[in-house]
Structures are given as structure tokens and as C-alpha cells.
Amino acid sequence: MQSLTVAASSLEVAQGLSDALSGFHPEIVGSEDEGYQVRVSLAGGDGQIIAILDALERHVTERHAPARVQFDGRSYVLHPE
Length: 81
Fold this sequence. Notes:
Elements: E1 3-8, H1 11-20, E2 27-31, E3 35-41, H2 45-63, E4 67-71, E5 74-78
Antiparallel strand pairs: 1-3, 1-4, 2-3, 4-5
């Protein structure tokens, strides 16, 4: 199953991302030493991906900080609007 992963610089940032993506059942993975990531499994097709990206865009715009996203083997940076 595909997943979308967002890098987090700290556990606090990961928890904020997880809260923003709570409707998509996110999972926080990693550790203080390795760094944290928030992972969302994708099973809902394109509509789900768009909804996740919309929620993530709202979150980074509110925080005024970009997010690093990995999807389908590629990395992207989502900037605040």
C-alpha cells in the first residue's frame, strides 16, 4: 500500500502534523535520534491524496513553515500559501 510521509524536525512538530492530518489516521514514526516522520497510508485514490495535501497546506500556512513530503519515491516541499 502506498503512503505519504511528512518529515518532522521534532516530536512536537510531528504531533502538530498528526493533529492536522487526524482525519486520515496518521502514524508518527521515528525517534529523537533518527528524526520523526508522519505517515499516512493511501487507500482512497486521488481524492484522498488531494484532501491530505489540502489539510497539509492549511497546516503549513498556519505555521508559516514549509513541509517536506515524500510520495511515490519522490520528495517535495510544500510551502505556505
